[in-house]
Amino acid sequence: MGRRVLLGTLGLGALGVLAAPTLQRGTEAFLGGAADRDPTGLTGLLPNGGGFRYYSVTSSVPHKDAGNYRLTVDGLVERPATYTLAGLRALPQTRTVRDVQCVTGWRVPGTPFEGVRLSELLDAAGVRSSARAVRFTCFDGAYSESLTLEQARRADVLVALRMQDEDLGHSHGGPVRLYVAPMYFYKSAKWLSGITVTDEVRPGYWEERGYDVDAWVGRSNGRDDEPTT
Ligand SMILES: Nc1nc2c(c(=O)[nH]1)N[C@H]1C(S)=C(S)[C@@H](COP(=O)(O)O)O[C@H]1N2
Ligand SMILES: [Mo]
User: Is the predicted pLDDT of residue 34 greater than 60, yes or no?
Assistant: First the structure.
């Protein structure tokens, strides 16, 4: 039985059994420079609707909603804060429409995202002068990401509550994910639960496994000579 046939017979619940060894193979393939650069192997094959692929480095992720979702902002700030979903919804919302681009090649053109500018949350917290970077953690308990403070303050970096004009569903990292429009989609941490202002960039989950920390679309991960269209 081929992998695709097998996949067709399995629900998402079966991923726990299969994800770990496949992840490892995928990572080795990429680091060894093999043609197949899909880092997440099996999970990357699962469609997530509308041209998206479903990615998670963990086999299961708890579901959070308006009742139990919390986002903490801490680290090198004057005023650490914890936001509820209602609290985030009450802040000014920004909408962007840009192409989503995964480093493994798939793309979803013209995708609306909506949420609070990360810069707004940083300003509200009062970033200390010794700060240089921002680290993001997730309630899947495993994934992390980071940006320099300068990158984090861009107007097209959102703490996103909505995608394609709907509330972010669980499979896309809802209720709240990071959205870093100018960078490959691995920067856009799903299931966002923590924003910590730090004194230096700490490489995120995929970056510890070989991907570029500065993940500008078309200008990173060995893509500098490729067309950016
Ligand atoms: N928490 C978490 N965030 C994540 C990932 C992940 O595995 N876990 N994968 C990243 C990668 S590689 C991609 S391409 C996108 C996929 O988002 P999607 O599942 O909404 O298509 O999420 C990014 N953010
Ligand atoms: Mo990705």
Answer: no
